Amino acid sequence: MLSLNLPLFPVLETQRLILRGQNESDAAALYALRTNDQVMRYIDRVRPKHVDESKAVIQTLNKNFKNGESLVWAIVLKEQPDVMIGNIGYYRTDLANHRAELGYMLLPEYWRKGIISEALVQAVNFGFDSINLHSISANINPENNASRQILIKNGFVKEAYFKQDYYVNGKFLDSEIYGLLNPNH
């Protein structure tokens, strides 16, 4: 079985970005992301009530990394490495099948600047080249055309459309699944 046990949290760099581990000092930024109506419009999760809940999410993400279950980076600009503007990573892993689910979010003031695509390329390359994933999936709300376009632009293809397969906030929602195969396999 594939392993996600890494000795240190990997730090990745792009031309403009650093992808680094999230720490408790990022809790206010994560809270700002998860309570922003624009960011959460198509991310169907319960929103935190206060910043301590975001701190607990970060603690869980770090625990899950140590347990080899997930790998989620903070997205920061190189000129502001202490200011998290979004995150990207493998939230759900199916290591027995060499597959992981990629998710991402970004503050609206950074939208339409290629930041998610830039981070996505690095995260995908790391997943394929360093972890040796066979495939990467992304689960989006079918109404989220911007996310769909980012995935398609980066080589993902639509694999499935599930009707009312997700229950949140008292209603059933549809899911659209995109996937990318490791070109080296």
Automatic annotation (TrEMBL):
Q: Looking at the record's lineage, which domain of life comes first?
A: Bacteria
The record's listing under PROSITE patterns reads: GNAT
**Which GO MF terms does the UniProt record name?**
acyltransferase activity, transferring groups other than amino-acyl groups
Every copy of the N-acetyltransferase domain together lies at: 17-174
Pfam families listed in its UniProt record: Acetyltransf_3
Keyword Transferase on entry: yes
Which keywords belong to this entry? Transferase
**InterPro entries attached here?**
Acyl_CoA_acyltransferase, GNAT_dom, N-acetyltransferase
| The keyword Transferase is assigned to this record | yes
Q: What is this protein called?
A: Ribosomal-protein-alanine N-acetyltransferase
Natural source organism: Pedobacter metabolipauper
Origin organism lineage: Bacteria, Pseudomonadati, Bacteroidota, Sphingobacteriia, Sphingobacteriales
